[in-house]
Design brief:
Elements: E1 8-10, H1 13-22, E2 26-31, H2 34-40, E3 55-56, E4 58-59, H3 71-80, H4 85-88, E5 94-105, E6 111-122, H5 124-135
Parallel strand pairs: 1-6
Antiparallel strand pairs: 2-4, 2-5, 3-6, 5-6
Length: 150
């Protein structure tokens, strides 16, 4: 990526769900963006410091078991689950969509991807829309948090 060719910005949950309907091999990554990520194409296990063989990401592809349920709700949940990351990492952590090939699994069983094609930033308003969708679901749910137990 370069500043001469900026990425598109997804500003609605609907537009992101449409992309997920049209394409496969899509992931969301929460980081400082493609520029620094594409330099190494490697994430690091935060606990041990071990370099990983790809970028950690979360799959956006709809699983077969989801059936004909709302793709919008599927995508909302995928975003909501990790929406805490800008608060626990740093304020420069932002979600972006990529297409890639899974090369393994990280220590949290997350996909590790290579052959990355950045597709677009996910605007903060989309995260708010995802939160609204999740908050209107019948069951209780919350984003994933990492806290140790003693």
């Amino acid at each position: 990526m370069d500043s001469a060719n900026p990425m598109v910005v997804f500003t609605t949950l609907h537009s992101l769900a449409e992309l997920v309907t049209r394409r496969r091999g899509l992931y969301v990554r929460w980081s400082h963006g493609p520029d620094p990520d594409l330099e190494t194409l490697s994430s690091r296990d935060e606990l041990t410091g071990v370099p990983l063989p790809g970028l950690s990401a979360n799959a956006l592809d709809v699983e077969d078991w989801w059936g004909d349920r709302s793709v919008r709700t599927w995508v909302a949940r995928r975003l909501y689950d990790y929406s805490h990351l800008p608060h626990v990492k740093d304020a420069h952590t932002r979600p972006w969509v990529l297409q890639g090939s899974e090369v393994g699994r990280g220590p949290d069983n997350e996909p590790l991807v290579r052959q990355v094609e950045p597709l677009g930033w996910i605007d903060r308003s989309v995260i708010h829309q995802a939160n609204d969708v999740i908050n209107h679901q019948p069951g209780p749910w919350g984003p994933i948090h990492r806290h140790g137990y003693s």
